[in-house]
Amino acid sequence: MKLKVTHLLFATIIISIGIISNSCKKKNPDDNSFNIFSINEDIKLGQQVSAQIASDSVTYPILSETQYPVAYSHIRRIVNEILNSGKVYYKDDFAWETKIIKDDETLNAFCVPGGYLYVYTGLIKYLDTEDQIAGIMAHEIAHADRRHSTDMLTKTYGISMLFDIVLGKGSQGTLTNIATSLLTLQYSKDNEREADNYSVIYMCPTEYNAAGSGDFFVKLEEAGTAGNTPAFLSTHPNPGDRITAINKKKSDLGCTGNQKFIDRYNDFKNSLP
Questions:
Q1: Number of domains in the chain
Q2: Global pTM?
Q3: Which helix (H) or strand (E) holds 225?
């Protein structure tokens, strides 16, 4: 009996190693985190969350691309500028689909695994320059590209999910539950710092001011609303510290772009309902 149990345990360990090895395929060599999700599972989760959002038009009133093609051409041009910087590791693996949510009261943007991006009209209208929205979209792209969501889910669901997969029990239900939890996921301080850092890295090769996301914090502080910073750029770490860190990263990288594209951004805002 002991021999059989030992063989079962050994087999389980071997299978687990195989799953972990599979999750590391096409892994960014600059990523030292332990993430049991494979890239394909990031994509699958993103597809599930995207479908949930599309099915809930009350919570997520997606702006019609048919009715507002100009607005979508603006946001996709901005996103593509970041993706084509040559710094987004999973550029060719993830979907990078962008949707605008019609809600003028919400200052928010978010990105789920697999590169499904969402930005609220309230945030677009609140900002003043194109480099600011580009910086925020770069920040969100970083969350997906650095796989922050599935890193955090690994910490939350890691052991139970791993053995569900190993034993072939309920994996689809587990993935569905995980996909649902992504809609309320909050990132850690380290995740936010890294997303800030990579927003500058992604923006640096472009014409944009690479510290665009930092300028958003400046705007919040000047308006006296830093205490109500949206969840996607949370108040931890401190907004003032993040401004300093973002500007320092731009200086350290020697970024030369300083374009804000104010007129073009006004055209974008005027194309919204």
A1: 1
A2: 0.85
A3: none
